[in-house]
Amino acid sequence: MAEQQLDLREIPPPQRHPKIFEAFEELESGEALMLVNDHEPTPLYHQMVAEVESFDADDYVVDCIGPNEFIATLPKK
């Protein structure tokens, strides 16, 4: 699965979700967007499930790398 990475830690919080949705939209089916974040993106997960039909929630993964570093993989159907 091809992946693109987006580091959100330096992006102001109000700009994060729009950037994520824009980057996810550009993915091809079968690709994934890897997010590096300073918190677990649970609200984003719920928003993706509710609003993005092409989001593959079954293959969504979050890894805690450190106290303020999370890697989330958002796959596209």
Q: What's this model, at a glance?
A:
It contains two helices and four strands. With 77 residues, it is of the alpha+beta class.
- pLDDT < 50 stretches: none
Describe the biggest sheet? 4 strands, mixed
Strand order of the largest sheet: 1-2-4-3
Q: What level of helicity do the residues show?
A: 25-40%
List keywords for this structure.
Translation Initiation Factor IF3, 4 strands, 77 residues, alpha+beta, 4-stranded mixed β-sheet, globular
Helix and strand arrangement:
Layout: E1 3-7, H1 13-26, E2 32-37, H2 42-51, E3 61-66, E4 69-75
Description:
By secondary structure, this protein is α+β, with helices and mostly antiparallel strands. It has one domain (3-75): Translation Initiation Factor IF3 (2-Layer Sandwich). The chain is 31% helix and 31% strand. A 4-stranded mixed β-sheet has the order 1-2-4-3, with helices on one face. The chain is globular. The N and C termini lie close together (11 Å). The model has no long low-confidence stretch (mean pLDDT 95).
